[in-house]
Amino acid sequence: MNEEENGSGGQEVTAQKQITIIKRVRSKDYRDIFVWGVYGGERLDYFEVVIQSYGVNAAESQDDENQDQNRVVGEVKDEISLKMTPRIAKIIHNWLGEHVKSWEEVYGKIDV
Fold first, then answer.
1. 9: phi > 0 → left, psi -120 to 50 → alpha, else beta; which?
2. What is the C-alpha to C-alpha distance for residues 62 and 67, in angstroms, rounded to an integer?
3. Over 90: is that where the pLDDT of 63 sits?
4. What would you report as the CA-atom Rg of the chain, rounded to the nearest whole angstrom?
5. pTM greater than the 0.70 cutoff
6. E strands present in the chain
């Protein structure tokens, strides 16, 4: 804060603006995950969603004990739990809704 003398002999206090800079950086642990499914729920003060991926377990699909060439072992893996405030959950909801709507306008309705 700056203090300056005003005309009456007193001190005038003026606040300086604080500038906040937020930089976007990528985590060293960043990775792409093709989402297979989600589950979770809401609490009083936060929402939680667990992101799942799907992959083939090649080792189990072709293990020595199983000679069946048509056997494929798939795995659904819980990748990460995301916890967020209700405000952030609403922002994500709106963002996804807008993108799903524009996708359907180009490619057609998504059936679930």
1. left
2. 7
3. no
4. 27
5. no
6. 2-5, 11-14, 35-42, 47-56, 74-84
State which amino acid sits at residue 16. Answer: Q
Angstrom CA distances, 44 to 13, 39, 48, 61, 87, stand at 42, 17, 11, 43, 12
CA gap 28, 24 in Å, rounded: 13
At 112 the three-state DSSP class reads coil
| Strand partners for 58 | none
Cα separation of 9 and 43, whole Å?
57
**Number of CB atoms found within 10 A of residue 88's CB:** 13
> Using CA atoms, how far apart are residues 96 and 79, in angstroms rounded to an integer?
20
pLDDT band at 68 (very low <50, low <70, confident <90, very high): low
pLDDT 10s digits, 19-50: 999 999 999 999 899 999 999 999 999 999 99
